[in-house]
TrEMBL record:
GO cellular component: a single term: nucleus
Record-linked InterPro entries: Bromo_WD_repeat, WD40/YVTN_repeat-like_dom_sf, WD40_repeat_CS, WD40_repeat_dom_sf, WD40_rpt
Record key words, sorted: Repeat, WD repeat
The species this protein was found in: Tricholaema leucomelas
Lineage summary: Eukaryota, Metazoa, Chordata, Craniata, Vertebrata
Name of the gene this protein is made from: Brwd1_0
Protein name per Swiss-Prot or TrEMBL: BRWD1 protein
Length: 267
């Protein structure tokens, strides 16, 4: 095997550089002299995640496709903590990303099975209030491009960033209760009736027809709700003023000189 570096990270104070190599080793280097200080052994597959602690220069986190998550003391070249992401009945889940919290007391990881893993100090009771499965109903909606090559949502023909806030659903597309819908930015202050999505039947890529969320419950309800944003209101106001100006211009054109005198209007 020809060795290749798959990931690289500096520690918090930049004194050390850690590289992940495709032979499953992590190597700790002196960033000033280039001297190899330690080989960190533990991973059994390629590593694409290296995260430094936000303020402790000794600590580095690594995670890989083997499902292993390690916390290392890179100054000593030793393993501090280890977690293996075993999923019951499915083997291990490859870890794709990890991030420390700003206070360094927690870190969160995502895996190949769509799980969010949260590690740290304290009680996990607050997390038990959240459903096991949380997706946006637009997560797997197909996109298309218009004549200007802009990206649009295929179903609504809208630019994704102009679409209303999505609904939270489970893995089968069933919407969660209204108390969870308020967790979505933009829906915090909505009335209950505006948090109930409209359901419809949609064909999947396999040709199976399933019931899924397709949008707001009704257009009327959407209009009766709160203004989506100040910017949307300004756009509506500018459009209204433009329509009024166009109306005035058309009236002036129709009531202009009738005897052929005067300056002709340009088209």
């Amino acid at each position: 095997m020809k060795p290749k570096v798959t990931m690289i990270a500096w520690n918090q104070n930049d004194n050390y550089v850690v590289t992940a190599v495709n032979n499953h080793l992590l190597k700790v280097w002196n960033s000033s002299t280039g001297q190899l200080l330690h080989d960190l052994v533990g991973h059994a597959d390629e590593v694409f995640v290296l995260e430094t602690h936000p303020f402790d220069s000794r600590i580095m986190l690594s995670a890989g496709h083997d499902g292993n998550i390690f916390i290392w003391d890179i100054t000593k070249g030793t393993k501090t903590k280890h977690y293996f992401n075993m999923i019951e009945g499915q083997g291990h889940g490859a870890v794709f990303d990890c991030k420390f919290s700003p206070d360094g007391q927690h870190f969160a990881c995502t895996d190949s099975h769509g799980h969010l893993l949260i590690f740290g100090f304290g009680c996990s009771r607050s997390y038990e209030k959240i459903p096991d499965q949380m997706f946006f109903h637009t997560d797997y909606r197909p996109l298309i491009r218009d004549s200007n090559n802009y990206v649009l949502d295929e179903q609504t023909q809208q630019a994704p960033h102009l679409m209303p806030p999505p609904f939270l659903v489970d893995v089968d597309g069933n919407p969660h209760p209204t108390k969870y819908q308020r967790l979505v930015p933009g829906r915090e202050n909505c009335a209950d009736e505006h948090l109930i999505p409209q359901l419809g039947y949609v064909a999947t890529s396999d040709g199976e027809v399933v019931e899924q969320v397709i949008g707001q419950q009704t257009v009327d309800q959407d209009e009766q709700g709160l203004e989506p944003s100040i910017l949307d209101g300004m756009i509506r106001q500018l459009q209204l003023e433009q329509d009024q100006r166009l109306g005035v211009d058309q009236e002036s054109a129709s009531s202009g000189p009738q005897n052929g005198e005067g300056t002709p209007r340009r088209g």
